[in-house]
Design a protein that fits this description.
about 55 residues, alpha+beta, two-stranded antiparallel sheet, 2 helices, globular, binds iron/sulfur cluster
């Protein structure tokens, strides 16, 4: 399962800059994780300053 970004995202870009597979891109009002590219490593969740990223379960 891929991780997901919720509305707490402040679009700082830290997750995108740290994703090892380039699965994160800027969306309209928050960043988005491409579920087909995400390997569920958890790096983005650990670096997000607002805790906006979690496991999709
Ligand atoms: Fe990228 Fe890992 Fe976050 Fe998936 S869990 S979006 S691979 S940093």
């Amino acid at each position: 399962m891929a991780r997901v970004i919720n509305s707490d995202c402040v679009m700082c870009g830290t997750c995108r800059d740290n994703c090892p597979v380039g699965a994160i891109s800027e969306g309209a009002d928050k960043f988005e994780i491409n579920p087909n590219e995400c390997i569920d490593c958890g790096v983005c969740e650990s670096v997000c300053p607002t805790g906006a990223i979690s496991e999709n379960n």
